[in-house]
């Protein structure tokens, strides 16, 4: 019995020694004995720069690092305005008390500002990366960020890339298809963005959806010790006054990293359209004046908990609500041989939407292995009430219309990714993704009879879609001497069922099972030059809303209708690129799309009405030739310029008349930052397009110039930003000469808008007086590397 007790005691003692965890605590003071709050204390394993644990000293200079395993370590202490201190290696086999005294950094106290510049644009692994963390002029919203991406043009809420349409926006790799692009661009805050990636040919790790470029927005992960944040006030004028405010706060201490943000914005916008077309011997002139003033409110936050050096769990969430009421004024004039008839109508819109998103995740990283599990839930609800009613005119009869449309989306996505890094020359990836989408659109149409709206069952419809998409992928990145290779294969299986419930219930099931390969081969040609060739195969599924059989009238002679018979399109993409110091220099791309999703405009000569619907056409071909050059020939100047030559071709010999449209276009773009006297930062952005082809619409030249100024005060505690957009005041002028339509259109929107923001930054970064430098930059960079 005694031997058994001794054995148990021995085992328990050794178990405790093996699994025991210890604490290091103490205080940080200056040589004068003053407590130093907000000092960063970092624990490293012996002979390593890995972070085993960290702490930030409190207001009394006291710190504590807990749950440390037995082992050999060394410590470093860094704080603003003082010389960093590093200990010798030591054995930790019991709790320790370590106090530190730091000397003032004379170099910092007598510091002369030295500015370092980095290449904030680089091309790697088939994608263009634009780093925004160091830019002082990204201060407004996602729309402002788009100006930083070479070749991306934003016009009236629509994005294009040198004549290519169909750009998809991802946020941290997650789809935003359920959101209106214009609202997303205007309302998403720029201060939350770390960098953006322009991906011409996405690899297997991305879903195969889409035919155009992908813009992946990478959000910042808090990398600053202590608590910090900002308050921002926005003012502007865009057809009418605009205003808003936002608040953000975050903190990093021990094992918890958290952030919270909220904001409100009242916007102003104008979107006018004039269409003039010939119908037999008559001329139809349609003018729409459409001002609106949407309001947006948002809040969001995230919490990361570092269980230990290998395991991290986190949760992020966002809530966004928009509300918009507006009245469109429509004037339709029909000019006949001997008379003019005129109809005046108004369309009243009452639209509000709510988006809720929650995203829990788990991350494991150890040595050469990385595992991520991600669950994402999105709930989207939209309500729209519009009334089209006559307010004047003569000679044209019209019955008033009223539409009520409720739209809902429920999206659940589960995703898992594994990464194994054998060495610097070989990395393997694998993963899986499962999406469940439930969406519904309830359209109710009412027709006026005897000054009363009567429900029109024939023009009403409840349309629901249930879709499941399951995907598996694998990918390999390899390097050998001056060569690098990336190849992947993605399999996607989707089952989509749409149900239309009007006079008869119809079901339109669709099952797709396909492999989507992707490949990239690169070679370093010399010290500065490199080359890359990549290929991928992708799918574009029809938008959910386009599958509905509805007919929706924008004005008495303009409508849109759904098409339940459209099928997905498939695109083969090939691109060759040259780089100089990892910056894009020259590239040629070709895309060939079958069953292309095409917005088809048709005209009924008997009624004079035009209608738009999404259809499939046989072929769409695109050539894209790009040249890029940096503009950094002066120490105070940084920027770039470039040209894009684009060719669009649309072909379908089954349509009547045959569709055969093509056009070349040239785009020039530039973005230039320059440091003015008194440390004022300025930015000039501009583009010019010779003309182009968007479906059936051939447009004239378009151009834009935007300018911004930024100035910080009190060591970045306060910041003022002033910008003006669309200085040239150029409208969109297009013509349609196809499908028996002969017409022109002019689209006019808000331009020459002025914007100003005032920002106040607070927190641990600003609690030390005197001149300062970021002495914890290395630590912050290690956290940022996980973004």
From TrEMBL:
GO cellular component term of the entry, any: cell outer membrane
Query: Where does the record locate the signal sequence feature?
Result: none
Instruction: Tell me which InterPro entries the record gives.
Output: Beta-barrel_TonB_sf (IPR036942), CarboxyPept-like_regulatory (IPR008969), OMP_b-brl_3 (IPR041700)
What keywords tag this UniProt record? Cell outer membrane, Membrane, Receptor
Q: Where is the Outer membrane protein beta-barrel domain?
A: 363-760
The protein's location, in the record's own words, is:
Cell outer membrane
**The protein's name in its UniProt record:** Outer membrane receptor protein involved in Fe transport
């Amino acid at each position: 019995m005694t031997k058994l007790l001794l054995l148990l005691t021995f085992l328990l003692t050794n178990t405790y020694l093996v699994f025991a965890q210890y604490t290091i605590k103490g205080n940080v003071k200056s040589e004068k004995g003053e407590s130093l709050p907000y000092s960063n204390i970092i624990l490293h394993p012996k002979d390593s720069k890995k972070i085993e644990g960290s702490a930030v000293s409190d207001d009394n200079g006291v710190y504590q690092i807990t749950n440390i395993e037995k082992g050999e370590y060394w410590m470093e202490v860094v704080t603003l305005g003082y010389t960093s201190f590093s200990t010798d290696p030591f054995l930790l086999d019991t709790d320790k008390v370590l106090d530190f005294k730091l000397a003032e950094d004379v170099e910092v106290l007598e510091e002369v500002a030295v500015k370092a510049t980095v290449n904030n644009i680089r091309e790697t692994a088939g994608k263009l990366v634009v780093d925004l963390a160091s830019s002082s002029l990204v201060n407004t919203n996602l729309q402002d960020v788009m100006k930083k991406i070479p070749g991306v043009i934003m016009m009236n809420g629509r994005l294009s890339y040198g004549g290519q349409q169909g750009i998809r926006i991802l946020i941290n790799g997650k789809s935003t298809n359920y959101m209106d692009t214009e609202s997303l661009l205007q309302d998403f805050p720029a201060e939350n963005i770390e960098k953006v990636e322009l991906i011409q040919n996405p690899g297997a790790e991305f879903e195969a959806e889409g035919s155009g470029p992908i813009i992946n927005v990478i959000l910042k992960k808090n990398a600053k010790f202590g608590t910090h944040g900002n308050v921002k006030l926005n003012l502007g004028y865009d057809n009418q006054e605009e205003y808003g405010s936002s608040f953000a706060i975050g903190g990093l201490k021990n094992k918890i990293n958290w952030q919270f943000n909220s904001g409100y914005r009242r916007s102003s916008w104008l979107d006018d359209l004039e269409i003039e077309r010939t119908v037999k011997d008559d001329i139809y002139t349609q003018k729409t004046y459409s001002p609106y003033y949407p309001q947006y409110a948002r809040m969001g936050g995230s919490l990361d908990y570092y269980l230990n050096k290998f395991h991290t769990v986190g949760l992020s969430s966002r809530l966004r609500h928009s509300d918009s009421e507006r009245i469109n004024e429509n004037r339709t004039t029909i000019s006949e041989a001997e008379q003019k008839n005129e109809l005046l109508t108004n369309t009243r819109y009452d639209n509000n939407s709510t988006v809720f998103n929650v995203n829990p995740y788990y991350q494991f990283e150890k040595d050469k292995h990385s595992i991520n599990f991600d669950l994402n839930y999105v709930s989207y609800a939209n309500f729209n009430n519009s009334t089209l009613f006559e307010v004047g005119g003569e000679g044209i009869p019209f019955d008033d219309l009223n539409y009520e449309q409720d739209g809902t989306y429920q999206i659940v996505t589960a995703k898992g990714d594994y990464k194994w890094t054998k060495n610097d020359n070989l990395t393997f990836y694998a993963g899986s993704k499962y999406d469940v989408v439930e969406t519904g659109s309830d359209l109710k149409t009412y027709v006026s009879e005897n000054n009363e709206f009567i429900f029109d069952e024939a023009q009403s419809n409840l349309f629901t879609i249930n879709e499941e998409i399951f995907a598996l992928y694998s990918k390999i990145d390899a390097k050998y001497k001056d060569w690098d290779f990336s190849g992947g294969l993605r399999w996607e299986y989707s089952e989509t069922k749409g149900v239309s419930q009007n006079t008869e219930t119809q079901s339109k099931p669709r099952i797709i099972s396909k492999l989507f390969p992707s490949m990239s081969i690169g070679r370093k040609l010399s010290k500065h030059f490199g080359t890359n060739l990549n290929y991928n195969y992708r799918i574009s599924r029809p938008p959910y809303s386009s599958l509905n059989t509805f007919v929706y009238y924008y004005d008495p002679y303009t409508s849109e209708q759904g098409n339940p018979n459209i099928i997905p399109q498939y695109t083969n993409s090939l691109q060759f690129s040259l780089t100089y110091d990892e910056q894009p220099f020259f590239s040629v791309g070709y895309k060939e799309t079958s069953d292309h999703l095409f917005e088809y405009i048709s005209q009924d000569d008997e009624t004079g009405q035009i209608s738009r619907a999404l259809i499939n056409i046989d072929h769409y071909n695109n050539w894209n030739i790009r040249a890029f050059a940096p503009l950094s020939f002066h120490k105070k100047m940084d920027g770039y310029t470039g040209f894009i030559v684009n060719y669009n071709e649309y072909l379908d010999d089954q349509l009547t008349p045959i569709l055969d449209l093509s056009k070349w276009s040239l785009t020039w773009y530039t973005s230039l930052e320059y440091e003015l006297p008194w440390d004022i930062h300025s930015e000039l952005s501009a583009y010019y397009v010779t003309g182009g082809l968007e479906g059936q619409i051939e447009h004239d030249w378009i151009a834009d110039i935007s300018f911004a100024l930024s100035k910080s005060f009190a060591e970045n505690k306060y910041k003022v930003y002033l910008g003006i957009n669309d200085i040239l005041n150029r409208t969109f002028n297009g013509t349609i000469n196809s499908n028996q339509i002969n017409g022109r259109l002019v689209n006019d929107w808000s331009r020459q808008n002025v914007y100003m923001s005032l920002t106040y930054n607070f927190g641990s970064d600003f609690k030390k007086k005197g001149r300062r430098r970021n002495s914890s930059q290395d630590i912050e960079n290690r956290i940022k590397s996980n973004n």
